[in-house]
Design a protein that fits this description.
Length: 166
């Protein structure tokens, strides 16, 4: 009787350990992913806010040129490995750190809605079907004379975030 009871407890502990490990492995991955995405979005938001309050505000107050702001966005892009945009509330792209300045050709992000973040400062997805891969997109408004003139949007690939998670 002792032997069968001992065997039952041993099998029970092994089964409990297996399912416990499986549960921890399953839930921890998603929790770590959310934490890493939130941390990256927070860091990107600080950068977007800085750009909006300095270069973006200077651009819309006519204190600097489009070329100077483009040069600054390119430098930040190469440092962060993230795509930086300045985009109007109507969805017209003013600057893109990954493309040359072209004022004649208007690039419009269809169905752009800055309220898509729904109380947050970032969103995950293809950014209104503009990208083919999922991105973490962070918004920071550029204000002048108490009005939102444009947004600084920083896009970072979720695939790069997943490398950190793994």
């Amino acid at each position: 009787m002792r032997k069968t009871l001992y065997l039952k407890f041993l099998v029970g502990y092994i089964i409990f350990g297996f399912f416990g490990f499986l549960a921890v492995a399953t839930f921890t991955t998603s929790m770590i992913k959310e934490q890493v995405i939130h941390g990256k979005a927070n860091a990107l938001y600080e950068t977007a806010t800085f750009v909006a309050n300095t270069s973006g505000a200077q651009l819309y107050n006519s204190e600097t040129t489009l070329e100077t702001v483009k040069y600054q966005l390119d430098a930040i892009d190469s440092y962060l490995s993230a795509n930086l945009w300045i985009i109007n509330p109507s969805g017209r792209m003013v600057l893109n750190s990954r493309e040359e300045i072209d004022v004649e050709t208007a690039v419009i992000v269809e169905n752009f809605d800055p309220t898509v973040t729904a109380g947050s400062y970032y969103t995950e997805g293809t950014f209104f079907d503009y990208f083919e891969e999922d991105m973490v997109s962070v918004f920071a408004p550029i204000t002048s004379e108490y009005k939102v003139k444009a947004y600084v949007v920083i896009h970072y690939p979720i695939e790069s975030v997943m490398e950190n998670v793994n």
